[in-house]
Design a protein that fits this description.
Layout: E1 2-4, H1 10-21, E2 27-29, H2 37-41, E3 51-53, E4 59-61, H3 63-74, H4 85-114, H5 122-145, H6 158-173, H7 182-192, H8 195-198
Parallel strand pairs: 1-2
Antiparallel strand pairs: 1-3, 3-4
Helix pairs in contact: 1-3, 1-6, 4-5, 4-6, 5-7, 6-7
């Protein structure tokens, strides 16, 4: 399989981490949505990442769809999203908060990068920041309530992957300090030391217009 997209995207990175945790081999094409837009659109007409090209040539887009496919591929015993019950509900909630925080972080970043300073709308940036921090507060509380191996189970699940990749992006891209969300930062630090995370290290460089 071929995973398209740069690892500075938390959405690309959570797919890459998942594939490594599941021991699914893949080729990584670190294509930029700016510089390599034409190449990406050969596989995904939206020109968005992540895009996953399957062995039969089919291409999937949107990280949630990609993660669902990976879980189906490995079966319920190895799937990273719990199959049912309260664990699944809690995992989905944490994933929604994590991806929401990441999306609001990207919105803030793009407002700074792609709009001239005189056209940037500070109330919009402030609103995105408020939404992002609201999600991060809840993630921090969840990490504080369960400081062990996994947030919803006694193993790493997609909840952990999504929370960690979102936090690492926010921390680096927007320079949100670790002391503001200490439990979340501690959980991320533990996970980032694991091979699957270390092997997909976040290499952030601000996007260019």
């Amino acid at each position: 399989m071929i995973l398209i997209g740069m690892l500075d995207s938390p959405f690309v990175r959570r797919v890459a981490v998942s594939m490594k945790l599941l021991d699914l081999p893949f080729e990584h094409r670190s294509w930029s949505v700016g510089r390599d837009q034409a190449a990406i659109r050969q596989y995904n007409p939206l020109g968005r990442v992540p895009t996953l090209v399957l062995d039969d040539g089919a291409a999937l887009c949107d990280s949630s769809a990609l993660l669902d496919y990976l879980d189906q591929l490995v079966g319920p015993e190895r799937a990273l999203l719990p199959a049912q019950g309260i664990e699944r509900r809690e995992a989905l909630q944490l994933m929604a908060l994590a991806t929401g925080a990441a999306e609001k972080a990207v919105s803030q970043l793009y407002e700074r990068v792609f709009r001239p300073a005189e056209r940037q709308h500070q109330p919009w940036v402030d609103r995105c920041a408020e939404q992002m921090h609201g999600a991060l507060r809840l993630l921090d509380q969840s990490c504080a309530a369960k400081p062990g191996v996994g947030l919803v189970a006694d193993r790493l699940t997609q909840a952990d992957i999504s929370c960690v990749t979102a936090w690492s992006f926010v921390h680096v891209a927007l320079e949100v300090p670790e002391p503001r969300y200490p439990a979340l930062a501690d959980h991320a630090r533990r996970c980032e030391s694991l091979p699957a995370f270390a092997g997909t290290r976040l290499d952030f460089s601000p996007p260019s217009a």
